[in-house]
Design goal:
It comes from Poseidonibacter ostreae. The chain is of the alpha/beta class. It contains eleven helices and eleven strands. Helix 11 links the parallel strand 9 and strand 10. Helix 9 runs antiparallel to helix 10.
Length: 369
């Protein structure tokens, strides 16, 4: 007989053997034997014993699934399935407290050591509880972040084999870093994470940054369009210099004036002092020298008193300076007055909220569009 025929007959015999094995296989008997063999590991207290318990848990879950799919009845022994531990880590007064349901005190202590828990809480012990060692090792990678990033009252827990994270971050800047750590740990987390509410000052700074970025983009686009139209008449470099020089010169002149002669007001009043009237006259002269110039009169205060009152005072004083410039001949359409109150300090106030430096009027020079 040739070699080819021998191989052919061997394949036929193998197929017949596989078909016979499948047709005579008793799922229920095999699963029952598997359970009796697997549960013999449950008495081990070592780390190997924990892994064995985990295997038992997974095998029992598989058995239940197979029996359900095959339509077979569950026997009484399947009611003895192992269950995963229940674990809750609570942030309290800057430390982490652990509550949960475990197999015994030895198992609970092994988790405390692995996760570096600060304090023991309330424990319940049930014989059928097992550790998912892989899950706990992944969870340990998150512990430092949980301790450092989250406020008191935040919780990290394991329920029915799932990891849940609920809490509030101390700083919204921690969020990207936390997301990166979770991704690297390969943890499947159900999270409900709140970010801290920003203070009024932080919101103003954020809004100012966003507005500045938008304005800068708009100005850049508008400038480029104008320059494109003028490209055939004047070189680009010369246009930029012609556009910015007269504004910058005026701004520098006004800054020099106000640095040595600060705009001041009569006590408990929005009326400009006689000394400052002379400074306002010189500023008016600068603005009248070039009709293309515009100016924003910005009023500022320190933080003493109510914020709403400071805002009103700064607005009234800015209006007072604007009106004085208008009386000196500067077109009111080229001016605007804005009171910012205590929102934009340039120096730190003292304990009473007082700062001579922060009580000021600024002049921001621009050009007519």
């Amino acid at each position: 007989m040739s070699l080819g025929k021998k191989i052919f007959f061997l394949l036929i015999a193998l197929i017949i053997l596989i078909a016979y094995t499948v047709s005579t296989f008793n799922y229920k008997t095999i699963l029952s034997k598997s359970e009796n063999q697997a549960t013999s590991f449950s008495s081990e207290d070592s780390m190997f014993g924990e892994y064995a318990d985990l295997v038992v848990l997974k095998v029992n879950e598989l058995k239940s699934s197979i029996l359900k799919n095959l339509g077979l009845d569950k026997d009484d022994k399947l009611g003895q399935n192992k269950e995963s531990i229940a674990l809750e880590l609570l942030k309290d007064n800057g430390i982490v407290l652990m509550n949960g349901t475990f197999k015994d005190a030895t198992q609970a202590k092994s988790i405390v050591d692995l996760l570096n828990i600060n304090r023991n809480g309330e424990y319940l012990f049930e014989e059928n509880r097992v550790i998912d060692v892989v899950l706990l090792n992944k969870l340990s990678l998150l512990m430092d972040s949980f301790k450092e990033f989250f406020t008191d009252g935040s919780k990290l827990s394991i329920e029915n084999g799932k990891v849940l994270l609920n809490g509030e971050l101390k700083d919204s800047n921690f969020k990207p870093l936390l997301d990166s750590i979770i991704a690297k740990s390969n943890l499947d987390i159900i999270s409900n994470i709140k970010e801290p509410i920003k203070s009024k000052t932080e919101k103003i700074i954020d809004d100012f940054k966003k507005t500045s970025a938008v304005v800068e983009k708009e100005l850049t686009s508008e400038s480029e369009n104008k320059l494109n139209k003028l490209e055939n008449i004047t070189p680009k470099k010369e246009v930029i210099e012609a556009k910015s020089k007269f504004v910058q010169d005026a701004q520098d002149s006004i800054n020099d004036l106000t640095s040595n002669n600060k705009i001041t007001f009569k006590r408990r009043s929005t009326n400009i002092t006689d000394e400052s009237q002379e400074t306002v006259k010189k500023i008016a002269t600068i603005l009248l020298d070039d009709s293309r110039l515009t100016v924003e009169v910005a009023g500022h205060t320190d933080s003493r008193g109510r914020a709403s009152l400071n805002k009103r005072i700064s607005q009234d004083r800015a209006n007072s300076v604007k009106n004085a410039l208008a009386e000196l001949g500067v077109d009111s359409k080229r001016m605007k007055a804005i009171g910012y109150g205590e929102d934009f300090p340039i120096a730190k106030d003292d304990a009473q909220g007082l700062s001579e430096v922060n009580r000021r009027v600024e002049f921001i020079v621009g050009e007519i569009k």
